[in-house]
Design goal:
alpha+beta; Aminopeptidase; Alpha-Beta Plaits; 2 domains; 8-stranded mixed beta sheet; 4-stranded antiparallel beta sheet; 10 helices; 18 strands; about 20% strand; binds zinc ion
Length: about 425
């Protein structure tokens, strides 16, 4: 079975995760896909496969005899999708020999256009897969699942010599919980790749450092007629806080490695106000400086309006995994080499967000992210090509071969083509 056939089979099993839920997994529907994959892996001949009570699937492809000492490599994708645009049946539509131009999505009135997605022109001649314009497609991350499953099948069918290969499919990535109940011991790999990026060839290992900031402002409310030098209007102080931030450092104004302060919520009245931000920066140093700017604002305003007027709470969310990956750059160099061997241009891009891989890296499983071939995630314009998926799958297979090459070897001498 190829990646496209698998994707089409998996996307019709709807698996939206549920942000409101407190159970694990957040939605029971994710078990349906997990057990489906369990059956398929078992049928392929992979008997070491289990789905745990938290809906994590772990599978192991035992090494080819003589390759037991190779590095233990793993691949991870997520079972869930976003819940937006996922409230009814997903109907994938296949457009063979796509012409690279505007494409109406079913009867939805929505049009997939090169104006919105300039890369569409480069997809001309390929087999394009979309939804019908009323739902997501679900290629995020069922394309990753399909590519890992196809990789596993090819390793076995083509008897490709390989070291120990671990596979995991996780629930609840879209609500930020994919790494929370991940069992590193059950997974049993030295390092892994999440297969959850966009275009094929993408290799990501630098994500944001991230925290949340909340200012609570307590005002002094008196009659406005006799308020001179007495009243402290909390809502006005909230807007003063925002005006004290450097201009032009918002998501709208930044790209690449530029960080930002993102105002996410602001409400209040004279008596009390709350203003919330998320803070993002790739550089640990700049990230620390941004937090310092906020602390200084708190201090200055308390000096101006009286102690206890403003109280700031900073909550760390995740850190840039490059700190960890820099100690095992063979993961990146081998991914680049795998791309080149498949005729795919490697694209190393910073992630303007976080990934499960970032959390896993800090838990002890270094875990960069690879592209799946998909685009336009999290909305009705999501699309992917059969050719992109096959290329992404070939990259995974090449990685397995690279890590099996020349085994056994001590782990201190992991293959690093860049060093050769
Ligand atoms: Zn994803």
């Amino acid at each position: 079975m190829d990646c496209t056939q698998r994707l089409l089979k998996y996307v019709v099993i709807r698996t939206p995760s549920d942000e409101e839920s407190t159970s694990v997994p957040s939605s029971a529907c994710q078990f349906e896909l997990a057990w489906q994959l369990h059956r398929e892996l078992f049928t392929m001949g992979i008997t070491d496969v289990k789905v745990d009570t938290d809906c994590y699937l772990y599978a192991h492809i035992p090494p080819t005899p003589g390759y037991e000492q190779c590095p233990k490599i793993g691949f991870i994708a997520h079972l869930d999708t976003v819940s937006d645009f996922c409230d009814h049946r997903i109907t994938p539509v296949i457009h063979e020999d796509y012409n690279g131009r505007e494409l109406p999505l079913g009867d939805s009135g929505r049009v997939l256009s090169p104006e919105m997605f300039p890369h569409l022109k480069d997809l001309a001649g390929r087999t394009l897969i979309t939804g019908d314009g009323t739902t997501i497609l679900g290629a995020d991350d069922k394309a990753g699942v399909a590519e890992i499953m196809t990789m596993a099948e090819r390793i076995l069918e083509e008897e490709i010599p390989h070291g120990p290969v671990s596979i995991a499919f996780t629930p609840d990535e879209e609500i930020g919980m994919g790494a929370s109940h991940f069992n590193l011991e059950a997974f049993g790999a030295d390092f892994a790749y999440t297969v959850d990026g966009d275009t094929e060839g993408e290799i990501q290992y630098e994500n944001f450092n991230a925290c949340k900031a909340e200012f609570v402002i307590r005002g002094v409310n008196v009659h406005p007629g006799s308020a001179k030098d007495i009243m402290v209007n909390a809502a006005l102080v909230a807007s003063e806080i925002n005006s004290m931030l450097p201009a032009g450092e918002t998501p709208r104004d930044t790209e690449g490695y530029e960080g930002f302060y993102h105002l996410t919520d602001m409400h209040g009245d004279v008596a009390e106000a709350v203003i919330r931000y998320i803070i993002r920066d790739h550089s640990a140093e700049h990230f620390a400086e941004r937090k310092e700017v906020l602390r200084r604002i708190e201090k200055e305003l308390n000096k101006k309006y009286g102690r206890g007027t403003v109280s700031l709470t900073l909550t760390d969310q995740y850190l840039n995994m490059s700190e960890i990956i820099s100690g095992c750059m063979h993961l990146i160099h081998n991914a680049e080499e795998a791309c080149r061997r498949c005729g795919v241009t490697p694209l190393i891009l910073p992630i303007r967000g976080g990934t499960d891989g970032a959390q896993l890296s800090f838990k002890g499983l270094p875990c960069p992210n690879l592209g799946t071939g998909g685009h336009g995630y999290h909305g009705p314009y999501e699309h992917i090509t059969s050719e992109g998926m096959e290329a992404a799958c070939s990259v995974l297979l090449e990685l397995v071969k690279l890590y099996a090459n020349g085994c056994p070897r001590p782990t201190a001498e992991l293959p690093d083509p860049a060093a050769q």
